[in-house]
Amino acid sequence: MPLFNSHNIVNSNLLIWNITESESELKKSINLSSIVKSRFDEIKSCSQRKQFLGVQNLLKIFNIKNKELVYNANGKPILSNKYISITHSFDYCGVVVSSKKIGIDIEKLRPKILNIKKKFISDRELDLFTNDNVIDVTKIWTIKESVYKAFGFSGLDFKNNIIVKSIDKKFNNAEVKIFKNDIIEFYNVEITNFSQYICSIANKRI
Length: 206
Known about the structure:
27% of the residues lie in helices and 34% in strands. The chain is an alpha+beta fold. The chain contains 6 helices and 11 strands.
């Protein structure tokens, strides 16, 4: 079942699906092209198969046909006339579409993220928030992952190439700089909590 549709993100539409259905139920309302079905048939994990089908259901709600969506060499989804980003984590998947560069990431809260925080958070970024806990560290990860997806270039160091410049007091919004060589972009990121998950949506600043 679709969880929510947010229209308060500038120039974008967001849909998130809470995957409670069986695989057969998820298949009922969608028709997969032969190419997409081949990709689906290669997935062995039950949870990943349902995530794949959940995304296909969201694409149908957006009226995006299989032939309209392609993936580049880095695995980034591409539409001819808009920007799109896709994410999934355990029982949730999400799709966001926009007229400008956009990225989305959903992550389930898991304590083990604290063990790797220094791999993607700099000392200066640690000074931006006071609670060094699973929720806040996961927020930083989703912020950086959403910006990375929007940016569209591979070979980046999350700690050194994606820099969180500021966070608001409620930790609901962030400003981020991302760069590779001489390519530099800035993003505004909105952060949402629901259930045991964090969702970040990155919009490129014009």
